[in-house]
Amino acid sequence: MKQQGKIDSRLEEIDQNRASFFQYNQFRLQQAIDKLPERKKDIFKKIPFFIHVNTPGVPGFVKDETVGGIWNFERSFFFRHMASGASVRSVTAEFPAVQGLYHIGSLGTLTQSRGSDFDYWVIVDEKELSARQHTFLDTKLKKIQKYCRDHYHQKVTFYIHDSGKIKNNNFVPLYGENLSIAPGSLLKEEFYRTFILIAGRVPLWSVLPPGLTDGEYDSLAGDIIASNRFSDEFLDLGNPAAIDQTELARGVLWHISKSRDDSAKALIKASMAASYCFGEKEKTGLPCDIIKKWYLSSNEFDGAADSYILLFNRVIRFYHGMEDARGLDLIRLAIFFRLCGYPFVAPPADSFEKKVLGKYIRDWRLDKIRVKKMLAYQQWPEREKTILEGRFINGLAYLYNLLNKTVLADTDLSARARSEVTILKNKTVEYLTEKPGKIPRCSVYLKTRRFKEFVISGKSAGDGETTWFLSAGGVSLYSHGCLFQVLGWLMANQLYTHMFSSITIDFSVKLYDSLSRPVDFDGFYLALQPWPQLSDTFFAGEPFWQRMAVLLVCEGRGSETIIKKSEFLIKNSWGELFHDSLAFDGVEKNQERCYTVAGRIAQYAAEGFKFFLFQLSDTPVEALSDTIREFFELISATGKGMDVNFEKKKPYLDLL
Amino acid sequence: MNRKMKQAQFLLVSDSEEEPKRLAAMLNQLGYGNVYQARGADNAWYRMKTSNVACIVCAYTMEEMSGLAFLKIIRAEKKYADIPVFLIDPFFTKIKVARAGQAGVTGLLVSPVDSARMKDKVVASLDAVGKDPAVKKVRESVERGTALINQGRYEQALEVFTALVSQQENPEYYYNIGYIKTVQGKHAEAIDAFRQATQLNALFAKAYEEMGRVFRALGRPKEAEESMQQAAEIYLDKDKLGNAEEILNEILDSGSESLNVFNTLGVIYRKKGELETALKHYKKALKVHPDETYIFYNIGRLYLDMKDTVRARDYFQRAVDQEPDFEAARQVVAAIDRGAI
To answer: Nearest-5° angle of CA B18, CA B20, CA B26?
Structure first.
């Protein structure tokens, strides 16, 4: 009886906790929505509905009778929102595919900015879904992603997980590329610290008392299930008891490679992970537990226990503890910018954010001139912006070296863990290391802006040399003496968007492909494939050359068209883009120049290597391309003996 | 040895520093002071262009460009057709010897080379330049054989080229023999000759093309098509779209309804920018084989050119569904899903 009484009291407590959680969740959700620009607000409110229904004409529609749906969607804010504006009938499935839909990350926190991505966790019970339902869900979510990208320019990512696997800290997504993932214990802590329940079941951990050991957690979870009191309202995603020390180094690397598009964010997150390695082993418990303790004991919310304030304070303490004055200065800078909506830096509009920023400014004794200068970031010249990012990247390199000398030097790892570390290390090295000829990065600010029409103008100086200036919308972006360096910079930084952007070359002569047609830049983009490597498997080994675009800069000399100079853009298997050039000093004849170009191509050629020839010329000369190809064949000895095989032959593959 | 000969310039090409040093010392002892050393083929080529080099000794194995490839480049220039080129290697396999011979090597040197051998082979070759009756005879024979073909005197031409290949194998000689045999209606022998030519040079499109025509004359359409298809694909890889298109249309005119022909024509028209025509050919290919993975991929590729990523993705996905390990298709699907394309 006494035992039952104790259980009843615990269940009563859970009931109250549930109410507190909903209140807190509603607060976070409202914060998130209020801060979103109008168009983003619109799509944010619609996404859960698109997942839930499957109706022709509604984005995400899949021609299939299979039923998807989100558990208890009608009870969510999002159903009410959609239902208020239109006649939406219940479409709840008896066995909805999605157990829970959660948003993870900066939405609804201090650091939410207009550039924030939408990252959702979609939790299913893998075993309960048929193969057809899995395909249905995968297709549906991809269609929604595309719709958001095409119509709202909003990056949306769905991470589809199995609830049972998450419970055991296995975060390998059910569908898609098996990219390297964060160590489970870190990811689980981050999830519980930042998630917003969008629709579906409440994570059980959110309503249990904070600071439970795994044993206590399991015992209480068992009592809740046995009581039948909460039906199936909760979803058991496991207890984030402790951060696994053996995985921390991997966590730092993962944060560095994952947040590569925002070095300030990467520095903060990697520092957070490093603080578990080298910090004071926080006596106050896991940050997610602190957040929970706060919302379970508060009746009113004003953001005081914002998950990012906890994070910021933690990393500041970390650098203090390390007595690293430079690191401290850098992390303050990163935090300042993060609070001001980096890269679209502006003074915070929200009163709470203003208060937090004001406190940091006072604590750090930042003078007015410096603050003013930092707030004017958007007006900084591009070079200053990249210098700032260079400093953040140096900070990341410092953390990487710290780990490399200590934790990562530990060879006592399983083969699988070693392979994952190799991949993450190589990704980190790719991100942090400057290499000769590698196309430089532009600032995050520039990268986040969406340009449509680019103009590359060639200005010839008296000495016959040409300088190429890249601009968009009247803004000067980049300049260089080599046309392919400029084009490579545009492509490598993903400023050029396939089927959206256009490039005009304003010069006296034109750019042609090897069939003497004016260059179609979408075709050029597909030939070079300048996007970051999509598969992690390439990072398991050393990089090798994959593709090359060759430019023959030609000029008329009498009746002959000769190659004046040659440029090369080369992409390797890590997705890095490099520029190379040839000036032909002392090589007079065209034939010899063709040979020299072929020799340079052959230096890069590896198995599966492809190259594409282009000419910048008054009149394109196809014979030049033919000669180079012939020399290349001779040099690389591709024409080695082979018999005709009359066995069934596969069709010709028109590889991209 | 006369004074003039001693002024002859030698070029020693290698990645290493040691061996050329030793050879240079030997040549100096033999009375030759003008000995240049070049690291790698690039530098050697530059030296050849800027100096009056009389003889080359080149390592067979070099990192960036092999000695064999360099030899081919040298022989591709009329100016250097007769220059003595020696390849040096510690170990010559039969294949190495055969390839060097086909490429026109003057002699092979097994390292380490002693002074006597250097004198007998390398220095002696200088005397033979332009005077070597064998070299002169070969050149004259080729010219005579070609003239005889042009005059339609096939039997005599055949004799010339048969004699030539007995001395040195060369794809061009075999091609000429094949051509003569074709004209003479000796189809089986023509095929043998063309086959020899393609074995020596796998990218010899013209030889495949002619072999295909001979197969057709023999009433062996399957082999005819395969052979001509091969020729078309070589032309396609070299962006010689007109040649490729012509051959494939010839196959179609012969009544073939082949998946590969329709598909390759699809690729050609895509490259030419005639996208609708390309699509028509791919659809014809799909009628022949509705589940062919590569056709799905190629149609996806075509839709990318048509700037229709939805349909493109659909076809790439069909390729993956058909063949889950088809990495190239998987990569494109991933690129589309992430908005890179």
So the answer is: 110
Here the tokens at position B48 are 């050849």
Partners of residue B332 in chain A, C-beta under 8 Å: 656
Q: How many CB atoms lie within 10 A of CB A322?
A: 16
Assigned fold of B3-128 = Rossmann fold (3.40.50)
**Comparing A193 with A172, which gets the higher pLDDT?**
A193
Helix axis angle, A521-528 to A483-492, nearest 10°: 70
Going by C-alpha positions, the residue among B213, B284, B310, B210 that lies closest to residue A651 is B284
The verdict on a CB contact (< 8 Å) between A625 and B331 is no
CB-based contact A650 B233, cutoff 8 Å? no
Q: What ipTM does the predicted assembly reach?
A: 0.80
Chain B environment of A586 (Cβ under 8 Å): 46, 49-50
Q: Is A518 on the interface with B (CB under 8 A)?
A: no
pLDDT in tens, A457-482: 999 887 778 999 999 988 899 999 99
Indicate the SS3 state at residue A46: helix
Find the DSSP H helices in chain B: 3-6, 18-29, 40-50, 67-76, 94-103, 115-117, 124-128, 133-151, 154-167, 171-183, 187-200, 205-217, 221-237, 241-253, 259-272, 275-288, 293-305, 309-322, 327-337
Q: On the CB side of B176, how many CA atoms lie within 13 Å of its CA?
A: 28
Q: What angle is formed at CA B246 by the lines to CA B240 and CA B248, rounded to 5 degrees?
A: 100
Q: For residue A176, what pLDDT is reported?
A: 64
Who among A149, A176, A631 is closest to B73 (CB)?
A631
pTM for the predicted model, two decimal places: 0.81
Tell me whether residues B227 and A644 touch, CB distance under 8 A: yes
For A612, the closest chain B residue by CA position comes to B239
Cβ of B301 within 8 Å of Cβ of A656? The answer is: yes
Query: What is the longest distance spanned by two Cα atoms in chain B?
Result: 78
Which among B46, B227, B294 has the least Cβ separation from residue A650? B294
